[in-house]
Specification:
CATH class of the largest domain: Mainly Beta
Strand order of the largest sheet: 3-4-5-6-7-8-9-10-11-12-13-14-15
Oligomer: single chain
CATH superfamily of the largest domain: Porin
Shape: globular
Helix content: under 10%
Number of strands: 15
Order of helices and strands: EHEEEHEEEEEEEEEEE
Number of domains: 2
Distance between the termini: 13 Å
Radius of gyration: 19 Å
Structural class: mainly beta
Strand content: over 45%
Largest sheet: 13 strands, antiparallel
CATH architecture of the largest domain: Beta Barrel
């Protein structure tokens, strides 16, 4: 269960979710994971895992939940191309020790046991190139009416997100992720088919047992403005530290720069760039 001040639970509240305390726009409650699961020993030696209920999306390396991403802030792909969490079912077929195939159906973007428009399809293939599992290739798709969110008034009737990702462990001290989320939304009012494209790399350097140094560099092209409301390119670079002296404590300061070709993209429509300094403290139990 997620309980916090903005911008977490209050802004992530799903369709059909719990409005508690009622009418409060600062605090709220959300079950990001609320499902039943089972392992079925069928098809192959690895079997099939089944989940039914509300769960976080399988698309994207970074998570909505702070302990499961390397930075305090999220990337553009997460905000505008992934959907966060949904209600539905998901199967994970462990074809071989190196190959997993996932298939599922969702009730659309960020729902709590409530259908947004139509039932949507989600799927993913994860393949480790070697048995040592140092390099993983991922391909994902999420398709359906309001499978993900659009800018206000710019939702079409059939959104498709295609994800390609490479995760590679160069050595025990350096891991790199390269990810691209690209999408199309059909029959957008006044536009037709809206599209967007993106690419980022995340680099995680394990300096020692207590310190990580993390870098994220990203490009996001909202070609028709259907995601952000501005038909422009965005770039961001984030540099952060993760200090974790114990398993239950993490302190993560970061500095982030955002840039856009549109002079009204940031600071309440008055600037084309912004600088953010932030820090969060996580107590995990």
């Amino acid at each position: 269960m997620l309980w916090s001040a903005k911008p977490a639970a209050a802004l992530l509240q799903p369709l059909g979710g719990i409005d508690f305390p009622p009418g409060n726009d600062r605090f709220s409650a959300d079950f990001r994971q609320l499902y039943v699961s089972a392992h079925l020993p069928v098809l192959t030696e690895g079997g099939v895992d089944l989940k039914v209920g509300r769960m976080g999306t399988i698309i994207g390396y970074e998570s909505a939940l702070a302990p499961y991403r390397p930075f305090y802030s999220n990337d553009y792909q997460w905000f505008y191309s992934q959907g966060g969490a949904w209600t539905g079912f998901l199967t994970n077929w462990h074809v071989t020790p190196q190959l997993d195939i996932l298939n599922g159906m969702t009730y659309g973007a960020n729902t709590f046991f409530t259908k947004r428009e139509d039932v949507c399809y989600i799927g993913q293939i994860n393949y480790w190139l070697t048995g040592e599992k140092k390099t993983m290739l991922t391909g994902s798709v999420h398709v359906g009416n309001q499978a993900i969110f659009a800018a206000p008034g710019l939702a079409g009737d059939m959104a498709t997100v295609l994800e390609l990702r490479v995760q590679h462990e160069w050595n025990e001290c350096f891991t790199q992720i390269i990810q691209s989320n690209n999408g199309w939304d059909r029959n957008v009012p006044g536009i037709g088919t809206g599209s967007w494209y993106s690419l980022y790399t995340i680099m995680v350097f394990h300096l020692d047992t207590e310190w990580d140094f993390n870098v994220r560099a990203e490009w996001f092209d909202d070609e028709d403005g259907t995601r952000t409301g501005f038909d422009t390119n965005y770039e961001e670079i984030t540099v952060g530290l993760d200090y974790h002296p114990t398993k239950c404590l993490s302190i993560r300061p970061e500095i982030r720069g955002d840039f856009s070709n549109n002079t009204a993209a940031f600071n309440n429509g008055s600037d084309h760039e912004q600088l953010t300094l932030a820090v969060d403290v996580l107590w995990k139990f």
